[in-house]
Each structure stands twice: as structure tokens, then as C-alpha cells.
Design a protein that fits this description.
417 residues; alpha+beta; seven-stranded mixed beta sheet; 24% helix
């Protein structure tokens, strides 16, 4: 039987959601579906129908991505991606993603982004790992700060938000801080609604989220931490776990104060997170850093470049270099969208960048997925040369490219969609 592909209506959403949930082996209640659907744009859903039944699902959110240098660029956020177990390996996912990417190009979105359920799926569609997440845990019994860091955070104070104030306070702080992190994804009103609704299936047996803001000396809220608590007792001894979902702060003092707030919580034996940036500084202020145990290093945001000239011209280059002007030619392979393949000349420096197609000889050759991984600064060209994923055609080209693309901060995405 042939398949029909089209968007779904709000009335069809429960069926759409059940198909996606079946693909992941979960069930959602009505309240959870209402929260999750708040961010959806129904005209950007795309479902595969067989005989009138939904057998595959995708959706795209109209988002924007923070680039190195602080500028933002439109990005289509691919989400709600699933195929019924009975319809695997029949080309449904490939066709839905191809259509969604083409729609993004038509809308003028030069990037597609996603968070992957499995790391083996999306490379073949041109996506590369563009940010990473660090997971670690800290024993609160060994969480004292070094003497030279002990006074960090003393100039401000922390305040637990009342639920009625969360939607008013947190988005403003996030919007002020997100340009500090390449890889940050802006949040729509619908995404904030879903985040603060905090569906039960996100909690893994822990409490709902608490949100605590840091206030600067003048009383201005300038950072926050969102966290959960899972209580545990060992023969009357508290052994609770506090899990940090998101911690954002503008200064070392505010950053330290929010971590100190979590580490000093009563009844807590372990503070953990699965979503920290890889350049998180907590280890470097601990008196006993060995008690910060790294649990995982995982991929975060995946980037698929749809318009190479637009994307390469949009970000800043040459971070930390006094003389950063350079020109490089990239030979880009793209089996999923062959029209994107070709040679591109990037002329970049501290004053800006331009990128055009060219017939000049290539300096480096790489797949579109690897260009996506490199784009925000998550990995160097030289690393991928050693991994035999990037080919250096001109001696020294990878080193030059490393200097251009390197960023002051590790790229990080704290928005889940």
C-alpha cells in the first residue's frame, strides 16, 4: 500500500501523539499531551498515513540558534519523530525528513536542528553533533570550595520562586543569557509552557521541578537553577539526590552561588546533572575535585546545514586571534541533498565573513554532517582529520581552520524540544 504524507489537525493530534509514543514504547496521559502540544505548529507537522492510519510522525518548530559571536540564525527544530514498529525499514523516516528539510529551505531557514534519540540515525541525513552535554555527580560531603573561591557568590542571594512567578521571571533571564552560549536555542512561549508544565514522564521518579533565582546585590534576578529532588533514606540517614536540570548564570559569583545553593541543600547526599556544558567550571573551584565524578559525555544538539553560504557567513570567526583574517575552500559532500555539495570559499575574520561557491582548489574536504559538527566549535578540524573524517588537501589548512572556528565557550544547548 502506498503512503500519504500531510500535516495533521489539532483534532488529529491525539492519534498523532499515540503513534509517536508507540514508536518510543511509552504512554502519555491527557495532561502530558496538552503540555507537550503547546509548542506545536500544526501546519509544520508531517505524518505518514497508510489506509487512513498514522504510521509515522514528524514535526518542526520555528526556532533560532545562537552562533559564535552572539548573533542568532533561524533554525527549524525537528521533533516528534517516530515510526510504528510495524513500519520500520520502509523509507518513511527518510521521506519525512527529506520533505521537512525542503520545507525549511523554502521558508528561508538555513539550518535544521534536532536532539537525537539514537546517535546512529541522523548522520545519514546530514546532521552532525554540534554540542555536547556533560553528566556528573558530586558528593555533598566533599563539596567544599577552595579557599581562594570560598567567597564566590557572597554578594548576591538565592530565592526560591513561587510557581505563579516562574513564567514571568525565568524567560527574561534566559533571553538575557542565551547569547553567551553558542548553541543555545531560543524558546518559544509554547516551549516555555511545556518546560514549566514539567510532565511526569520527564521526572524519572523524582519530584517536579523547583526553580531558584540568583539576585545580584541590587536585587536584580540575573541567573537561575531548575532542579528536582529524589528523597532516599538509609536506616534513618538522609541520602537524597538533587538533580540539576538547568543552571544559567552571568558571572562566576552567580554561578558559584547557585551551585552552592544546591550543594548545601538539607537531606541531600548527591548533587548530579546530565546536562552541563563540557567546560563547566565547578570542578576547578572544589577543594577535593576527585569527588566530582563524570558519569557521561553525550551528544546534545545536532545541526544539519541546508544553505552553506548563508550559514558560514552568519557566525563570527577568529576568537582570541589578534590577526584572524583567512580564506579557506571547503569541498563539501552531501549524499542526501546533492545540490548542496560542492566547493565553497569562506573569507572570514574579525570584521565579518562571506561565503560563495567557487572553482578554486579545495583546502579541506568533508561531509556536510562533519561541517555541521564543526560549525559551532564543538570539535576541531584537526581532530576530525586524525579521525579520518576530514581530508586536508592543503598543508596547514586544518590548523588555519581550527583557529578560525574555535570559540571562547564550548557550545551548549540547554533547551530540549
Amino acid at each position: 500500500m502506498s503512503f500519504e504524507y500531510r500535516s495533521v489537525t489539532a483534532e488529529e493530534f491525539p492519534t498523532f501523539a499515540r503513534t509517536d509514543a508507540a514508536a518510543f514504547g511509552v504512554h502519555h496521559n491527557e495532561d502530558e499531551l496538552a503540555a507537550e502540544s503547546a509548542a506545536l505548529e500544526f501546519d509544520r507537522t508531517l505524518a505518514a498515513f497508510e489506509g487512513g492510519r498514522i504510521v509515522g510522525t514528524t514535526a518542526v518548530l520555528s526556532l533560532d540558534l545562537t552562533l559564535p559571536g552572539g548573533a542568532s540564525i533561524p533554525a527549524s527544530g525537528l521533533t516528534w519523530t517516530g515510526v510504528l514498529p510495524t513500519h520500520r525499514r520502509r523509507g518513511l523516516l527518510t521521506e519525512m525528513i527529506r520533505r521537512q528539510q525542503r520545507s525549511s529551505v523554502d521558508r528561508g531557514e538555513p539550518l535544521s536542528i534536532l536532539l537525537a534519540s539514537e546517535s546512529t540515525i541522523y548522520g545519514r541525513f546530514g546532521y552532525g553533533i554540534a554540542t555536547n552535554e556533560l553528566g556528573f555527580s558530586v558528593s555533598t560531603a566533599h563539596s567544599g570550595f577552595r579557599a581562594d573561591s570560598a567567597d564566590l557568590g557572597e554578594a548576591g542571594r538565592c530565592e526560591l520562586l513561587e510557581p505563579e512567578n516562574e513564567a514571568r521571571v525565568l524567560p527574561d533571564i534566559f533571553d538575557r543569557l542565551r547569547n553567551s552560549f553558542p548553541g543555545a536555542v531560543g524558546r518559544t512561549e509554547g516551549l516555555w509552557h511545556a518546560y514549566l508544565a514539567d510532565p511526569e514522564h520527564h521526572r524519572e521518579g523524582a519530584s517536579g521541578m523547583f526553580h531558584t533565582v540568583h539576585r545580584a546585590a541590587d536585587g536584580t534576578p540575573d541567573g537561575y537553577v531548575s532542579y528536582r529532588i529524589k528523597s532516599d533514606w538509609d536506616e534513618g540517614v538522609p541520602q537524597g539526590t538533587l538533580t540539576v536540570q538547568e543552571l544559567l548564570a552571568p558571572t562566576p559569583a552567580a554561578h558559584a552561588a547557585l551551585w552552592r545553593y544546591c550543594l548545601d541543600m538539607d537531606l541531600i547526599a548527591t548533587v548530579r546533572t546530565a546536562h552541563a556544558p563540557v567546560d563547566e567550571t565547578l570542578r576547578w573551584v572544589l577543594r577535593d575535585p576527585r569527588h566530582l565524578r563524570v558519569d557521561r559525555l553525550n551528544d546534545g544538539l545536532w545541526v544539519r546545514i541546508l544553505d552553506v553560504p548563508a550559514v558560514l557567513a552568519a557566525r563570527a570567526y577568529g576568537s582570541g586571534r589578534p590577526h584572524s583574517d583567512d580564506a579557506l575552500v571547503f569541498e563539501v559532500a552531501d549524499s542526501f541533498h546533492p545540490d548542496t555539495a560542492g566547493r565553497y570559499l569562506l573569507e572570514a575574520g574579525a570584521g565579518g565573513a562571506a561565503c560563495v561557491r567557487t572553482t578554486r582548489a579545495a583546502d579541506v574536504a568533508l561531509d556536510i554532517s562533519d561541517l555541521g559538527a564543526i560549525y559551532l566549535g564543538a570539535v576541531d578540524f584537526s581532530t576530525l582529520v586524525r579521525a579520518r573524517r576530514v581530508h586536508e588537501s592543503t598543508d596547514g589548512a586544518a590548523t588555519r581552520a581550527d583557529a578560525l572556528f574555535r570559540t571562547d565557550r564550548a557550545p551548549w544547548c540547554s533547551t530540549h524540544f
